[in-house]
């Protein structure tokens, strides 16, 4: 049983039965994904926003996008847009994200384009990142048809999706230079070494060190850990200048806490405005099941507000 003594008592009542998410030597990837979907499947927000599907041409074939439309702008103007990248340790999850899609479309009054990017181990880095870049480029190329404002396109994601969003910003800066106004990095998975105090702890609830290192091995596909490219593990980036402003929230009972704090500090040192917010007693992605708890609701409201402010001032 993982150590839960530091978890917020109210949040603890929402905790799902505790067992390893990725027993690599025991389960096939298909079974891992099935168990993940059963345990942490989509929990609709109850909003009215349902997605429509578009299929675009990616670098190696079709990429599915799920588009959630927020309320109309006053006067019918173009909407801001969030390119959303789902979580799942780079090895599971799905772009038809009926939790975050309506949440951000309605809460931040925008269009959300959720990307069903390719997953490891079948498709290790850089497959998912290149799919995400294709979606970003498609949004810019089709801004008029989609009625979105190309000067207000943000990228964001949760957990591995947050890491993918950070890597996408680095890749775009160095290769595409398409306008990105903001990066919303929810407890991002950005450091394949986990060489921090929080990263060295072994018993975090939901997503522990052993599970995370196993997922990183699949995503990096044999690349030596110290040689991981910055596009895969943003913490490995040497130069963080020229990136979009960022908001990075994370719980203090999260494996990623210290690496996320350090990444925000490095962004600020490089001249990139980055807000880091730590939530006491919060475990990884705890605000999803704990949306009605005090700390869970606070985290969720904070990151929706950060996106809304980035879009609408």
TrEMBL record:
The superkingdom listed in its UniProt entry is Bacteria
Where does the Alpha/beta hydrolase fold-3 domain start and stop, copy by copy?
Answer: 82-285
| Keyword field contains Hydrolase | yes
InterPro entries in the record:
AB_hydrolase_3 (IPR013094), AB_hydrolase_fold (IPR029058), GDXG_lipolytic_enzyme (IPR050300)
Q: State one molecular function term (GO).
A: carboxylesterase activity
Keywords, comma-separated and alphabetical: Hydrolase
Transmembrane feature ranges: none
Metal-binding among keywords? no
Group of enzyme by EC: hydrolase
Q: Which EC number(s) does UniProt give?
A: 3.1.1.1
Tell me the protein's name. Answer: Carboxylesterase NlhH
Organism per entry: Thalassovita autumnalis
């Amino acid at each position: 049983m993982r150590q839960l003594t530091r978890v917020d008592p109210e949040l603890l009542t929402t905790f799902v039965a505790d067992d390893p998410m990725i027993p690599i030597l025991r389960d096939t990837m298909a079974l891992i994904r099935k168990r993940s979907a059963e345990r942490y499947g989509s929990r609709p927000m109850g909003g009215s926003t349902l997605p429509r599907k578009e299929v675009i041409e990616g670098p190696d074939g079709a990429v599915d996008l799920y588009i959630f439309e927020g309320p109309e702008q006053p006067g019918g103007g173009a909407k801001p847009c969030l390119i959303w990248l789902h979580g799942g340790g780079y090895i599971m999850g799905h772009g038809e994200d009926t939790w975050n899609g309506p949440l951000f479309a309605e809460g931040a009054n925008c269009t959300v384009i959720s990307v069903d990017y390719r997953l490891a181990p079948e498709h290790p880095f850089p497959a998912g990142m290149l799919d995400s870049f294709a979606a970003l480029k498609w949004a810019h190329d089709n801004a008029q048809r989609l009625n979105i404002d190309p000067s207000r396109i943000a990228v964001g994601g949760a957990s591995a999706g947050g890491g993918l969003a950070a890597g996408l910003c680095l890749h775009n800066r160095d290769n595409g230079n398409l306008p990105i106004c903001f990066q919303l990095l929810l407890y991002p998975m950005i450091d394949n070494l986990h060489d921090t105090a929080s990263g060295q702890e072994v018993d975090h609830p939901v997503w522990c060190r052993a599970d995370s290192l196993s997922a990183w091995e699949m995503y990096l596909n044999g690349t030596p850990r110290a040689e991981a490219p910055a596009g895969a593990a943003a913490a490995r980036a040497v130069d963080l200048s020229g990136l979009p402003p960022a908001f990075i929230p994370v719980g203090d009972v999260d494996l990623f806490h210290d690496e996320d704090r350090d990444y925000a500090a490095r962004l600020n040192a490089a001249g990139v405005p980055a807000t880091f917010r730590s939530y006491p007693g919060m475990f990884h992605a705890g605000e999803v099941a704990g949306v009605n708890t005090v700390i869970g609701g606070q985290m969720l409201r904070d990151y929706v507000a950060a996106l809304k402010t980035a879009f609408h001032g």
